[in-house]
Amino acid sequence: MSEKTLTLPVTGMTCANCVATVERNVRKLEGVREANVNFASEKISLIYDDSLLGAGDIINRIRKAGYDVPQQTVDLAVTGMDCVNCAANVERALKKVDGVLEVQVNFASEHALVTLAPGVTRQALVTAVEKAGYGVVQAEDEDTLEDAEAAARQAEIQHNLRRVIIGALFAVPLFVLSMGRDVGLFGHWAHDGWVNWLFWALATPVQFWVGRDFYVSAVKSLRSGSANMDVLVALGSSVAYFYSVVVTLGLMSGHVYFETSAAIITLIATGGLLETIAKGRTSAAIKALIGLRAKTARVVRDGVEQDIPVEAVRVGDLVLVRPGEKIPVDGVVRDGHSAVDESMITGESLPVEKAPGDAVIGATINRQGLLTFEATRVGRETALAQIIRLVEQAQGSKAPIQRLADQVSAIFVPTVVTIALITFAIWMIGTGELAPSLVRMIAVLIIACPCAMGLATPTAIMVGMGKGAETGILFKSSEALERAHKLTAVVLDKTGTLTRGEPSVTDYVVSESTGFDDDVLLN
Length: 523
Hints:
This protein is α+β, with helices and mostly antiparallel strands. The chain has 16 helices and 18 strands.
């Protein structure tokens, strides 16, 4: 039995009978050993078996009884994940933190969306991720988090680029010399003993400097009780490398495979670099949306105009917007007349007239007159913030095919290792020769290690969401994107008109009834 202690805030209780109702409903859950509700502090303290139920089950039971449990969401930018198994490791580590209700880790976007009960600190989540062997992008405040994340991603790209360059500098000549010797291009001297020592010298920096990240990731993965794709890379390249070392030292006879280990590591490092670059590009749509926000706002407080950061605007503030400026937050016009370009939100190609009583949307552009409006929605409640959150949540959600990929990847590495060992045993029994048996075992390990399904599935979803956002199409979830290929009809609201978001000339019409040469029709 694995007991866990949890304290949750409960809202909606008005009397002692409410306390009894909550306690009675929660105690009915299998696995709950103790449940005590404090009416004064409006909290419930529980001791339960987390192998039988989770915090989410408890919250659902409380809500079913007619009460509620406040929640908060934290978005963590995670670094160091190399495959879907890494994402699963991070997810397991976060779920072990007391108060964490739900975790969704997206390998493609490298973000973890954590739903938790009030009182759980961000640092507790960061500590859990770091203990699992991964990193979290840190920033002094939320305003600088985006810059910190971008810097971390760029540093990761530069690190992978250095690995690929160093790997290529050693692996390419090693591969050419080794293959040339095998086909007889270099004469008898290429078979002298010192050539193997040269190959060893060329392969060693690749194995232990370029391949260091694979070893570190594999050890962290095994330490956390699972096995990721880097375990396969480390195993396959190490077997080839150390077998060749034994042959070079004269402890046994055979062919050396230094070029195999070096090529494996360099090629997979190259794939990692391309993958990192691709993941950075797929988040461009969200960054473009974030870039639409105004940075500052001009508000009137105590009769004085002052420029403040847009994050400091409060509901009820009077905000002034001059012609050509962005409207910082959502609100209702109190004074002034103008025309506002709302194309970035609505797609309306022509500016919309605004007068007292009309609503304005944050991040749209005031084209003409001076407007004074009252802020009604600020921060995460603005229309643009909700659109950004929708795209982020959609990218973070898991499509059915991705859930299948996660299930397969959970048993993928142990299965591949088992098949590789069986292959080795069959060849040893059949031939009695060590070298051919090792080559076949390495082939199984290396061919399997990229895990196309585990890498391609989340990346494809990420790219699809990003491309959709770039063209103004928002998907509610990854499942909606996956099912889009079955669409046979598209239904549009309002008049069913699609626009470019900006006016353009469509036709010239000559008018004989006016003194003008022609009239121009705008779309």
